[in-house]
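Hello,

Following up on my earlier ticket. Below are the two sequence lines again, exactly as submitted.
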Amino acid sequence: MKKDTSNKSERDIIKYISNLFRFPADSPVINGIGDDCAVLRKDGKSCFLVTTDTLVESVHFELAWHPPFLLGRKTGAVNLSDIAAMGGQPRFALLNMAFPGSAPSWLDDFLAGFHEILQEYGTLLVGGDTVKSSNDLSITVTIIGEAAEDIICYRSGAVKDDLVFVSGFLGDAAAGLALCQSGLSSHGLGQWQQLIKAHLDPQPQVQLGKILAESGLVHAMMDISDGLATDLAHICAESGTAAEVIKEDLPVSGQMTAAAGKLEKPVLDWALKGGEDYQLLFTVSPDHEEDLCNLVHEKTGQQIFCIGKIIEGQGVFLSDTLQREEVSFQGYDHFTAWKS
Amino acid sequence: MKKDTSNKSERDIIKYISNLFRFPADSPVINGIGDDCAVLRKDGKSCFLVTTDTLVESVHFELAWHPPFLLGRKTGAVNLSDIAAMGGQPRFALLNMAFPGSAPSWLDDFLAGFHEILQEYGTLLVGGDTVKSSNDLSITVTIIGEAAEDIICYRSGAVKDDLVFVSGFLGDAAAGLALCQSGLSSHGLGQWQQLIKAHLDPQPQVQLGKILAESGLVHAMMDISDGLATDLAHICAESGTAAEVIKEDLPVSGQMTAAAGKLEKPVLDWALKGGEDYQLLFTVSPDHEEDLCNLVHEKTGQQIFCIGKIIEGQGVFLSDTLQREEVSFQGYDHFTAWKS
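Thanks for your patience. The regenerated structure is below:
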């Protein structure tokens, strides 16, 4: 009987592809489909990390409110974030663009933004492709990074009793998106500046990712692109564990809380299910919590937030003093890269 | 004054991007934008070759006549051909797909074809992305290959008096496309089989590319994706030379000549300007012509065709006993990868 992929979810497609495309035992692929990056042996000690993302207008971004310069920065940032999530240094980029008709008038601004963020993170554009599309404007970015094989952090390393950390506020990007959609963003300025920036111009945590990976203290790591509930569920699924998140420990910003009030949205939904925060999500043994927090503070001045712990079982659970509910895979509903 | 990219041709865009994204002198990028692949230093002697192409339905392929299995093979082949063009061994692939709505019912067949061609050329799928589009079905493939640094063939190596060779018939793919467009292909079978196959299921010249590169006799090489007139003009532009092509030496197949008669099209247009033949185009010193032909014949049983020579000046000229006309950049009119 013929198999049929119609109505397959992306997770089904990934599973199907992973089964079809297997790796021989002696392959130089240390890690293929199923993490933030593929990991390819480069030389004796170093690996190339490879990640790719496609963004389509009206699905992943809206030119109505996304200034082309910042869109250029963001298309770089979402891929740089995947390199950060494994502890790598981004090195090379490829940029593919498809647009209907001739090159759009804002292309220079877009390229200037893309160039700026690549430069900030020491990444060189080495190739790409520009094609005519039928209707859609779409952009594919591929980034190749590098890391020593023995420091790379995978999703699969979490163990029972690990503490779960995030590197910054959750839900700011979702709030920023909602403000842009509602027309309240007023050109990205004013009282919502931090939220609008989180949506339009997210910062990949490349420096922090390297510090965490090089510390040798982090067991599992990924970036939060599809929302905490979904992304922590990926870590749990890959590690064969469950996680318990403490509702009151979720780090949310004052601006996000205010925006939730203004737009009559639940703060928790944005914090838990809002996508595209591009913060790092990682686990560490409780024995090393203090060392890690001190190291991060010393090297970056940055605070990191403990939001729960790894437990036995399956799934992600959200707890407060009254109840405990499962929230696995309740994240941002967009197809994402083959990282699940 | 603000620069404006609107109405820029793809060659203008590439020039703009090449100027914006420059490489520092100490970079591990041996070759960036402007050839079939980027060349990145891997270790002391070996390099990674990276190439990427985006194909959009109704622009680069038509599902009306392209069986999904063969489309899967072709999306792999066009990128494998770029690795072949530098003399590399393909190693790793990434596959990005954007489709409107849910996964199409033919996805399994497409993936089976893509899997088959990767396997034939020893290439492993290591990642990708599947996203929802607004309207278009588009596919981006990125392939990473490998080659010893000292054998890689570039477009820029042609020198005066070199002979210009192609690895097989020209215009078969253009004839196959015209037959499919005209409805004469009758499901790809019958008297036009070779032409239909050239269009639907082209064969990347990976083995030949390696033999040519390893011979040390080839000065410049690329694959013919945009038609001989355009692609030879790229070699000439990169090498600072001109080329003279002898009309009667262009290798054309009996089927292609018959199809041109049937469809009342000029044979020469397909041979000179038809895209997507994915044959190799390369130059060699006349002193080594015989050695190279013997080597190729011995190792592959394949014939290669001398079609002209490299001369001083600029441009590509087509000659017969009566006249000599410039035909530079008269190729297939589609946006192509940043290889020009």
